[in-house]
Amino acid sequence: MSSKYEKFFLNLYVFLAIFEPPILPVSFIYVLGCITIFFIILRDQGNIDLSIFKETTMNRFYGFFIFLSIYMIIVSLVDILFVSHDFMLINRLKGLNQLLILTGIQFLNIEVILHKVRSTKGNIYVVYDLIINCASIQGVLSILAYLIPTVRSLFLKFSSDLYQNPWLLERRGYGFSSSLIDLFGYGMGLAAGYALFTFNRHKFMRIIQLLLIMFSIWFNSRTGLIVFIIAVFLKIIENGNLFGKMLKISGLGVSLIYSFYIILPKIIEIGLKSMNATVKWIVTDFGGVYDSLMKTNYVVNPIQNVNQDSTYYMLLQDLVKTPDNLFQKYFGTGYSVYSAVNGYRTDVGYTNITWMFGLLGTILFCVFIIYNFRMACLNTSKKEKTIIIFNLISYFIVLVKGRLIGYGPGIFVNYLILFATIYFSRKNEGIDGEVNEKI
C-alpha cells in the first residue's frame, strides 16, 4: 500500500476515533471498537503486542480505572443495602461502561494510531497534524451542514434524541459527530490550540485550519471558545524571560479588563439584536453571565424554554451540591447524577465525579490525573510542555461543564496527546519538532 493511501486511511481512522460519527442507528464507538480489535489481532497474527500500552503507561491508567470500577461496585453494594436502598441500576452500569468499555476502546484506538505513526518513523508532531487535519475536516462538514439543510439532516439522522428538541436544533447541531455539544467543543478547542502552538510549521494552512475549526466551534459549542482562549493566553506567554512574561501578562491583563468593561458590553448589545438564532443564543448566554457578575441588565429573562440545569444560574449550586449522607459524601454513591431519572441531576463534571466516588475518591482521581500529566512533561521540549499544560488546564476547566469519563471527542483527543507525548518522549523522538512527512 502506498504512503498516499496509508495517509488517507490513517486520517480517516483518526477522524472516526475522535468523532465517532452517527453513521449507524447504533453507537459507532462499539462498531469501531470491534473493527479495531479484529485489526489488532490480524496485524499481530494473534500474538498481541502490548509494548505501546506499557510505554505510554496506558496499562497503568486503565488499571486505575479498573480499581475505580471495583471501588464503585463495593460502594454501590453498601449504598443499596445500608444507606439509600436506591437501586439505580442503569446509572451504575453506565458508570462501569464509561470506565471500562468506552475507555478501553479508546485506548485500543490510540494503540493503533501510535503503532502506525511509529511504523512510519513519525513523531508527536505527526499526531498533532492528524488531530488538526481531522478537526479541519469536521469544520468543512459543519459548513456544509450549515449551508445545506439536507446535508445537516443526513448528519443528524442517527444522532442523539437531543436534536429532536426544536430550541436546540435551531441553534446548534452543525457537524458530523456523536457529540456536538460540550465535549465536541472541548475536542475542537484542543485542536485549535494545537494549530496555534504549531503555527510556524504550516502558516498559511494553519490559518485556513483555524478558521474552519473556529466556525465549527462557534456554531456548536462555546466550550471550545474557552479552551481556545486558554491556548491564546499560553501562546502569548510561551516565550521570553521572566520579566518579558510578566510584561506580557500585565499587558494582557489590561487588555482583558478593557475588553470586559468596554468592548464586551458593546458586542453583547449588537449580538442581542442579531436575527441569527445561534449568534443570539451564544451572546445571550454570555450576556446572562455578564449580568450576574456585573449586576447589569443587558439580558432580561436570558434563556427561554431551556432546561434549568443548563443555565448559569444553576451552575454554582450544581457545582457544590454533594450527597447529604456522610457515607455518600465521602465515599460516593456508585453512580453519577448526569441522567438520573428521579431527583437531583446535573451535567457538572465535578459534581458527578463526587457522587460516583465521594470527596475522597474525587481527590484521588484528580491527583492521579495531575500525576499523569506531570509524567508527560518529563524529557519533552518546551513547546510540548506548554501543550501538556494547556491540556491540563483545559481538562480541569471543562470538568466544570461536563463529565470527562467515558467517551467524548475532547476526552479522546486529550488521551491521544497525553499518551503520545509520554511515548515519544521516552523514545527521545519529536523533541526537536521535526516531522516525518510519510504520514
Give the tags.
disordered C terminus, mainly alpha, 439 residues, globular
Describe the 3D structure.
- The chain has 439 residues and is an all-alpha fold.
- It has 2 domains: 2-234 and 321-433, no CATH class; 240-301, no CATH class.
- The protein has helices at residues 3-19, 28-43, 51-55, 58-83, 89-119, 124-147, 149-155, 166-171, 182-197, 203-218, 223-236, 242-272, 277-294, 312-320, 326-331, 349-376, 382-398, 409-426.
- The longest helix is centred in the N-terminal third of the chain and has 31 residues, at 89-119.
- The radius of gyration is 22 Å and the shape is globular.
- Mean pLDDT is 84; it is low at 300-313 and 430-439.
Short description:
By secondary structure, the chain is mainly alpha-helical.
Task: Give the radius of gyration.
Answer: 22 Å
Strand content: under 5%
Q: Quickly give the structural class.
A: mainly alpha
How does the major sheet shape up? none
| Element pattern in H and E | HHHHHHHHHHHHHHHHHH
What is the total number of structural domains?
2
Q: How far is it from the N-terminal to the C-terminal residue, by CA?
A: 13 Å
Low-confidence stretches: 300-313, 430-439
Count every helix, treating DSSP H or I runs of 4 or more residues as helices: 18
Q: Tell me, rounded to a whole number, the average pLDDT.
A: 84
- Secondary structure tally: strands: 0
Share of residues in helices: 55-70%
Shape: globular
